[in-house]
Amino acid sequence: MEGFSRRNFIAGAGAAAAAACAAKPLFAMVPKSPFKISVISDEISPDFDHACSVISKDFGLQWVEIRSMWGKGLHDLSDDQLAEAQKILAKYNLGVTDMASPLFKVGWPGAPQSKFGSKHDFGSNDNFKQQDDLLTKYIALAKRFKTDKIRCFDFWRLDDVKPYRAAIDNKLQETAEVCGKHGVLLVLENEMECNTASGPEAARALAAVPSRHFGLNWDPGNAVMLGELDAFPKGWDLLPKHRILHCHVKNAIKGPDGKIVWSPVDKGFIDWAAQFRALKNSGYRGAVSLETHWHGAPTHEESTRISWAGMKKELQDSGTL
């Protein structure tokens, strides 16, 4: 090393470091946050590879929530398709936040027909008897995709759920215990078309289903769509924060005709900067997952890009990004 000075060494090391940084793909530079920031992939495209490319390369994220791909619910994919999905996740270095399953998005047996019961949501029209098999599939899928959370609902919304509420709660309790035996958590989403939709209804459900394997997928946008315009902060204030296990991010606003319609994340009744701060201050460190739903741009992908820009701004304004 004759003639190789300390100054030469430092300069050379600096150049090497700069070259290494330049060689890193852009999507390796992920944002720092107390949350697992994710996007539901099919809100971008049914093409799973393309959706993951956008999430990783363009959005700079490390997490994805999976619900469907290639036009099919996860439980309807072949083993070869599931293997391909795993390869795609590895290709883009993405982890999976949860299984966004349609479990229990069906009618409750013996109850009157719900006005929402004719809708199809990647398997939700399967009848009640098939739900146990669906749960078995999603427990296996959760293990395959290395996540410990399975999203569920609590059946199509009834005009009067009171005669059936205790039985529904018992079913959720039993299902949570089954999940617990397999090392996974059952996460109930408050959904405007199901029997738990608002903040108060979510708080009631958590009190009625005490399993330590059961928690909430908090979605204040869904509560707003039901008509609970003060879902944050009023509905949020009712919730036991330690039982919030997942969070969906979207927004809604009053349209020209007075009806509530979906909107980009940074426009609407939910003050997401304040909600993100409240989540952080409560000790929440789980996923905040973009579920666009607003389709005001020409394509789903463009709409999701606009919503992600709004969500990113709200995260930054909240000090959580």
UniProtKB/TrEMBL annotation:
<dbReference type="GO" id="GO:0016853">
    <property type="term" value="F:isomerase activity"/>
</dbReference>
<protein>
    <submittedName>
        <fullName>Sugar phosphate isomerase/epimerase</fullName>
    </submittedName>
</protein>
<dbReference type="Pfam" id="PF01261">
    <property type="entry name" value="AP_endonuc_2"/>
</dbReference>
<feature type="domain" description="Xylose isomerase-like TIM barrel">
    <location>
        <begin position="57"/>
        <end position="301"/>
    </location>
</feature>
<keyword id="KW-0413">Isomerase</keyword>
<dbReference type="InterPro" id="IPR019546">
    <property type="entry name" value="TAT_signal_bac_arc"/>
</dbReference>
<dbReference type="InterPro" id="IPR036237">
    <property type="entry name" value="Xyl_isomerase-like_sf"/>
</dbReference>
<dbReference type="InterPro" id="IPR013022">
    <property type="entry name" value="Xyl_isomerase-like_TIM-brl"/>
</dbReference>
<dbReference type="InterPro" id="IPR050312">
    <property type="entry name" value="IolE/XylAMocC-like"/>
</dbReference>
<dbReference type="InterPro" id="IPR006311">
    <property type="entry name" value="TAT_signal"/>
</dbReference>
